[in-house]
Amino acid sequence: MSVTRIPAGYVPLTDAAPLIAAQEMGFAAEEKLTLELHRAPSWSSLRDMLAFGQVDAAQMLSPVPVAAALGLGGASAPLSVLSVLSVNGTVIGVSSALARRLAGAGHSFAFDDAVSAGRALLAAAGPDLRIGVPFPFSMHAELLTYWLKGLGAEMPRDIGIRTVPPPLMAEAIRCGEIDAFCVGEPWGSMAVEQGAGALLLPGRAIWSFAPEKVLAVRSAWADAEPGLAGRLIRALWRAGRWLADPASRGLAAEILSSRRYLDLPAEIIERALSGSFTVTAQGLQREAADFLGFHDGAAGFPWRSQAQWIALQLADRNGLDRAAALAMAGRVFRSDLYRDALRGTGADLPGASSKLEGAIGAPLLAAGESDDLSLLPNRFFDGRVFDPLAAG
Amino acid sequence: MPDALSIVVVETDRERAFMIVDGLRDAGEFDIQVISEPSGLARQIQMRDPDVVLIDIANPSRDVLEELTLASGPKDRPVAIFADRSEDGLSAAAVEAGVSAYVVDGLQPARLKPVLDAAIARFRLFQRMRTELAEAKRALEERKVIDRAKGMVMKARGIGEDEAYALLRKAAMDQNKRVAEVAQALVTAAGLLA
Fold this sequence. Notes:
Chain B: Residues 126-187 form the ANTAR domain. The complex is a heterodimer. Chain A has helices at 17-24, 27-30, 43-51, 63-69, 96-104, 114-125, 139-150, 169-174, 187-193, 219-224, 226-244, 249-257, 266-274, 304-318, 322-330, 335-342, and strands spanning 4-10, 33-39, 57-61, 79-88, 90-95, 129-133, 159-163, 180-184, 197-202, 211-218, 276-278, 285-287, 292-293, 364-366, 373-375. By secondary structure, chain A is of the alpha/beta class. Chain A is globular, with a radius of gyration of 20 Å. Chain B has 2 domains: 5-107, Response regulator (Rossmann fold), CATH 3.40.50.2300; 133-193, Orthogonal Bundle (Arc Repressor Mutant, subunit A). Helices cover 58% and strands 13% of the residues of chain B. Chain B has a 5-stranded mixed beta sheet, with helices on both faces. The longest helix of chain B has 49 residues, at 109-157. Classes of the chains: A alpha/beta, B alpha/beta. Chain A binds chain B through residues 41-45, 48-49, 51-54, 72-76, 134-137, 156, 162-165, 167-168, 172, 175, 177, 318, and chain B through 38-40, 42, 57-67, 69-70, 72, 79-81, 83-84, 91-92, 95-96, 100, 102.
């Protein structure tokens, strides 16, 4: 079998690590693939590069392929999700002014509890809180909405969610365009480094197993190239397993920091990989366990229920039919292709393709295709459970 | 005859903005405005209420425009990316040339075509200029590194310039690498040993 080149796009973020590691550490080569990596300046441009065939695979915000299936946003070709590249990995931060008000009101910046942090934020912010997210269709926007609505905020009356490109987040908060943000690392830590703000919560405090970035391809490509899709899934699964090993963190951060990829200091990139954060400009340290997942708990498995949770949030906000949204979303996350690719490799494959989102409170042994597998907690901050069969 | 199409060009570089506007003027009667300050972009665009927004794909603020695809109030005019409507591979050509267009819903494809044609031509030109500039920069960098490596070889072996270059070239051929790569390796190694 000769080597096949696959043009693949990513956005320079810490969680672009699976695609970059797959190429740099030889996991792609093991599958006789060369990933021709293209750094994209924005999510919409990456989506269009994928839609128009400039790349065949792309790191993508998990809601983007779902939104495309629902006809939302400027999408132009049906997209399919082959695997989940990363779980969690975002941070919520506030401006220095808001951080001072929070501290004044007695908030401890414990960086763990979404209820107390959220109440403190709503109380300190007053009316008209403006929060920056990288893209209208993003887990960032979904988590913020779910969290603040759950705490009683009226949206969008009390809270405006604005799109701000991650590299411009620190600047937007410094010049007062936004009061808070939810962004993927390393851009939250960069904002702290630049003295623009403080970190309030890791995204996982809102949903402890949120599918953050996915591997997206054109649906037509997935149908035409099942063999290639399988090799790609396996290469990225091995890259994720390598990234999950704590011994890989230093090297992974070094590779990501190079000029061709993120072009940012390795020390700042490593914070998300290790879960050790500096949350204020004064140097307050906080640990966030399982901050960013690449492998454990069958992280790569594209659960249909994850897509359906996303679809329902999008449908509710945009006035679409819930049942139709659920049905369409179920077809976007291709758990069938993921199974075909990894069966027999020793990878954990769950027995079902849907689960109750929010129902796992502690690591759980679940039935797998061959062996039992361990699933990680997937709790929502408010304890609600999403049952895709009962929804709609 | 319908009113002239109103076009907003989002471009921070003045020179490039002028070139795009010129290109569009040659293509027809348009009402063209340029936004050069990316902060509050969505608000700025809503205020001007154009039929078409043109933006460089490489501009990270492009993601802000995606907000405009969701009409949040009855007075908002939803926009779609041009790709939904244009034919003849025009949108693929635009993406390839590096330009994005956001278009108000309901705009006739025929009215959009000359705008896109002109924008694509300009952006192709920019792309060529960008590639040429990057190429020239790279060549200059490489020559500097090769000169340094040559100097090191000359000093270490007490040989002339031509001979030193011949050695570098032979090493490159033996290792199936470019002379610049071998020179870079030598310069890096020398830096570590110094």
